[in-house]
Amino acid sequence: MNFNNRLLGQEPARKLIAIFDKDRSGSISFNEYTTLHAFLNSLLAQFQQSERKTPGGMAITDVPAALQAAGFTGGFNITASGASNVAKRFDTQKRGQLTWEDFLLLSAHLGLLRSVFEWSDTDKDGKVTFDFEAFTYATLYL
User: Fold this and answer.
1) Cα–Cα distance, 2 to 15 (Å, whole number)
2) Distances (CA, A) of 55 to 1, 18, 52, 67, 108
3) Per-residue CA distances from 126 to 26, 73, 122, 138 (Å)
4) Is the pLDDT of residue 104 over 70?
5) What is the pLDDT of residue 10?
6) Which residues are CB-contacts of 124 (< 8 A; sequence separation ≥ 6)?
7) Residue 39: which CATH number?
8) What is the pLDDT of residue 60?
9) Which residues of 39-66 are buried (b: 16+ CB within 10 A; e: fewer)?
10) What is the pLDDT of residues 60-71, one digit of tens each?
11) Is residue 8 over pLDDT 80?
12) Backbone CA torsion sign across 130, 133, 136, 138
């Protein structure tokens, strides 16, 4: 998968397709692709805005606001401390900031977690209960 003349890598591409494949067909339609493309544009804009303040990457402290601005809202909010803690795991160079690839993978991972949660929340009350088998099935997408 290529976006903005950059290869996205196999793992982020797989996760992004799983997120935007709303009918779970294993591929994405044109309409699903346009939604994916808009999401990627939003992520890139947030990354570039942060990178102007912190040349060479996105400061981990900027991640919570960038995620919210990119669309992580509406019942699936992640706290600032939660986002910062997750971002530290994706900081591949361990320098307190994320490269574009790090931020993309973080966003794809959180997006896929949100999708799996939504699929599992059949009564749409914002809560899910898993037995081990259901949990195992849900994590196959991760």
Assistant:
1) 14
2) 26, 32, 6, 19, 23
3) 26, 13, 9, 16
4) yes
5) 84
6) none
7) 1.10.238.10
8) 92
9) bbeebbebbeebbeeeeebbbbebbbeb
10) 999 988 888 887
11) no
12) negative
Alpha helices in 10-99 (DSSP H): 10-20, 30-53, 63-69, 80-90
Q: Which of 65, 84, 90, 67 is nearest to 11 (CA)?
A: 90
- Residue 36 bridge partners (DSSP): none
Confidence of residue 59 (pLDDT cuts 50, 70, 90): very high
Look at the chain and report how many structural domains it folds into. 1
Which pTM does this prediction carry?
0.83
**Amino acid in the structure at residue 70:** A
Reported as a single tens digit per residue, the pLDDT across 70-90 is: 877 555 667 788 888 889 999
Quick one: which H or E segment has residue 7?
strand 6-7
Rounded CA-CA distance 54/97 in Å is 8
One-letter amino acid at 20 equals F
Look-up of token digits 């067909």:
25
Domain around 73: 2-139
